[in-house]
Amino acid sequence: MGYPISHSRSPVIHRLFALQTRENLQYELLQVSPEKLETAIRQFQRTGGKGLNITVPHKTEVTKLVDKISDRAATAGAVNTLSFRGGEVLGDNTDGIGLLRDLAVNLGVTIEGANILILGAGGATRGIVGPLLEMQPASLWIANRSLDKAQLLADRFSKTGPVSACRFNVVPVSTKYDLIINATSAGVHGEAPPYPSAAVSGSTFCYDLSYGLKPTPFCIWARESGAAQSVMGWGMLVEQAAESFNIWRGIRPDTAPVLKQMVIAA
Ligand code: ATR
What we know:
This protein is of the alpha/beta class. The chain folds into two domains: 10-93 and 236-265, Leucine Dehydrogenase, chain A, domain 1 (Rossmann fold), CATH 3.40.50.10860; 109-232, 3-Layer(aba) Sandwich (Rossmann fold), CATH 3.40.50.720. The protein is 36% helix and 16% strand.
């Protein structure tokens, strides 16, 4: 469920998972406006639905509609996966683990001891800061157009690890960033904000949570700024889907062939 939803690739991913694991399932897109969210979830549950992915713009709002919430979803303040068990609605969040799996397993990026810079301080950032800090990076800066949102997030996670906030134009560049993650929604509108080019060095791995048919504005910026690599978030998309599939079906699909197919298809 999302609003809008027609762009979503999740039905293709889950169809490929179902074929691979021989699970019999139907996964469809449901466009649901914010005011109809609660009714739509209840109706889906009543008519025998087994689980839901919840996406933009509902991920925060849906936390109020669940009976139980996982620790990681509570920390993120956002839910992307619902499952229905014994009449109860359980809320979970697989975005953070999806990103970590893509970075660590698929791309070989080491988070422990890394200097990380996240661009943006919205819902996407809130979902990934906790899981990243748990991997014990050396530092994590959240840079945002407006400082107050970044500062709120840094305060929220300050007990979990070394996290700080700043504006784009004052990102400390004495640090060599190992990983820069774009979590702004700027690229969705085709914009490339004044990202801090001086933060990029030849050893920086750049990762865009957004993905598209063509390189995103952030990926183009990263390459032009001299990054070692720039990657779009197709892997996170497939990995978070695999985690959700596992919650619903108790079986974790092999993501590698599906990711290959998605990227080739893109
Ligand atoms: P999401 O839940 O997808 O993260 P969001 O909560 O609307 O979406 O957050 C969007 C993020 O992208 C914010 O950090 C926003 O910056 P502000 O907090 O300053 O609004 C950032 N963003 C969106 N468009 C941007 C642009 N053109 N330039 C810079 N930052 C942008």
